[in-house]
Amino acid sequence: MVATLGGLAFGLPALNQALPAERSVDTGRPYAIGGGVDVIPPAGARIDVTETRPAQDTGTVLFRLGAVRYLIAVRRFDGSLQAAVTGLRQRITGTSGYQVTGTELSVEAAGGLVGLQGAYSGPGRGGRYAVFVADGHTIEVTVSGADLDLGRVLPQIDASTRTLRYTPEPPE
Amino acid sequence: MTAESHLRSQRTAPVQPGAGSEPGTLRLPAFWIVIMLLAAGGVRMSLLVAQYAAAYPLALLTAVVLFALLAVPFWFVVSELDFLEREPPGLLVVAFAWGGLVATSVSIPGSGALDDIIAKLGSPHLAADWGAALAGPTVEEIAKTLGVVAIVLIARNQVNSVLDGVVYGAMVGLGFQIIEDIVYAMGAVALAGRGDHVGPVVTTFLLRGFLSGVWSHTLFGALAGAGVGYLVVRGERSLRTRIGAATLALVGAWASHVLWNSPLLRDGLGNGAVALLAVLILKGLPPLLLIWLLVRAAHDREADYYAAQLTELDDPELITPAEVEALKAGSRRASARSYARVRAGWRARAAVRRLQRAQARLAVELSRNTADLSRWHHEVRRQRRILVELGHPEAVAPDGKGPWRRTASAVFSTALAVAVLWAVVSSLGGG
After folding, report:
1. Ranges of H-type helices in B193-320
2. Is the pLDDT of residue B126 over 60?
């Protein structure tokens, strides 16, 4: 009994750790995240399959550029852009030691998506976020990593974020 | 008792009465292992709850209160399943705690890891579509079933029939369901990013408590528990047969859970309240019916066994033949209580209930070959005297009296529940 419980609680996570999580991704073509949203991955990015879950109406994708995380999440959302931004900021600052820094700026992506972006910091890490709202969905982008790593790859990530595109489903 | 049921009771010999208490429990290593596992699970879940309490105290309090209230009717129904040979409250608490503390503590890392493994060995698409359907049931059903095994290890004498396994399995499932629902509700609060708001808690309560509550872990746990009960009780069958049956029950619980979590029919019936209700029924009803039939069969067999014990008394002051028949079925017991109230008032109703409990307890003691039955005889006779004084000496309802009112009440309650469900589904965007 104890062995079985141990196998479930510790064996499965150990096996999971032993398997590689990253996969290469074609950085020259749009990657479908889910919910009708796609993005062109930044050069040199690899996908972390443990946090990538494409679905029909929602989806997440985690790109890794070395030690930097570039996460895009598409969720159903019934509200304004400002409400979506406030929600994301609260989740960021809800983590102990994390705070939003600087001012928010407008950002425009491909296909006319308009959003807001800002920055945050945590213990030994920096981060960027951007939020878009389109047709009952929110598209949240969070980037995090050590400041030096972040500075090196931010231009590619910013360029990738601007390729975010929402394609509404054709009416049935 | 009918000749047919007597034959069935003798043929299947489903009940193995055990001693009334477990004097050596504290000396069992298994008991202390279970206690340590419960303590470890308690610490693990307390740490999780402490995080929520610090960030969202109001939402956490609301979630705990709502889901605790939801647990009450489930607890009542599950504990009443085995009216004749009631399970000790202490063991029911252990089963509930196993589900809420141990099975959840194991399932959170285990299910997450298995979901990731599916994504790594398959693809993120596979994990997105089938991860929840495969990872959760695989880890959770095993972890919960071990809770029934734990009960067997620490109190073998209290698992005397397949129905006992059903009750303990359902109670493990209930503990799991309630704690999992609270965790889900708090996850929804965190994801909403609106701070300490109770809105996501209420939505989770409606979705997981009402829409999914009926065919959730309590049901799956009952099925797996029936398998463990069979494995333990049916000693006359070969070990291979018993292990096969227990495995089949576990696989059945797993398959029901997989079907419930699966993306099948997700888009097949369109949008709207009707489609959602249809999917809920198509996915949830087959396992519900299967398990209901199983529970009913286990209950009837156990009732036959204990009824035979009481029939042999041949003492109408202790129990009349009509009361034996009434005692065997929950509906007839309720009819007898109802009829007593109509005929002689609430005191008579309460006395009938006490009489039924005393008769059931006497049956269990008879089956245990207890040497001195005077205590239980005395209690039955005492309740009989009360009923005689109230002018309602026999705890039965005439044929055709009583059930219609409860049936009407059940129909009305079901219609009300469907209407509430309909309103909820519509308010959530259907229709």
Report:
1. 199-204, 217-233, 239-261, 273-311
2. yes
